[in-house]
Design brief:
This protein is of the alpha+beta class and about 250 residues long. Helix 2 packs antiparallel against helix 3 (about 80-95). Helix 5 links the parallel strand 1 (about 125-135) and strand 2 (about 170-175). Helix content is about 55%, strand content about 15%. It is globular, with a radius of gyration of 21 Å. It is built from eight helices and five strands.
Amino acid sequence: MSSSVVTLLIVCGFLCLSVAYLAFRLSRISRLKREAEIRLDQMERLKDSTQLPRIESRLNPHLFKNILNSIQSHAYQTYFALDKLANVLDYILYESQQQHVKPKEEIDFTLDLIEINKIKLSPLFELEVITSIDKNDPLYYQPVIAPLISVDLIENAFKHADFQNDDAFISINLSFKDGVYHLKVSNKNSNKSALAKEKGGIGTSTLEQRLNLLYGRHFKLERIVEDNVYIAILKIDLGGFGAEMHTVG
């Protein structure tokens, strides 16, 4: 058998495996999408008597809609996108139903969410993502942080960034050290969107209510506008919060 025939067989085999893998990932995405749509319908109908579940029922459907839109727009582009979409949907459908998750899980979810949003950007767009994670921190693998706590800041940056100007940018700084979860998101404002209204709308008020109910004095959320640049900073002292809960208990 000639080398060219062998090469052709290898290429054909690789293509077959690639198609099979893509079909598998698309099938999984389709299943997760159906589950998400069912969960979305259930949550929109749900009427709970406690304040926090009501707040979360407003947050999660909004997130589901954005993720489903991303699936429809980008699921057929790359294996990488399919993996990230599947990871994000897994987290939303299953892990986010827990009262607390591990910082590692929330950070992985946040980075996957950023990767999904990157698909929509031009290769020339300035996106800076800086992470500083202490994986040796005792709390890194402990269920101490509320799930989906990063969504509002990340999605607002991609939703309201000015993608038309040459100086447009998004900067995301994510760190976890000494039991402190820190997320700083900056973006150049777009004059074409109702930014002020959106930033003061349901998403923003929901995040503040949720943080207040969950962490009390152990969090700090700042929003700053400087030279048409919007800056959001979230800091949660999980170590201090956990110590206080342990003392009370």
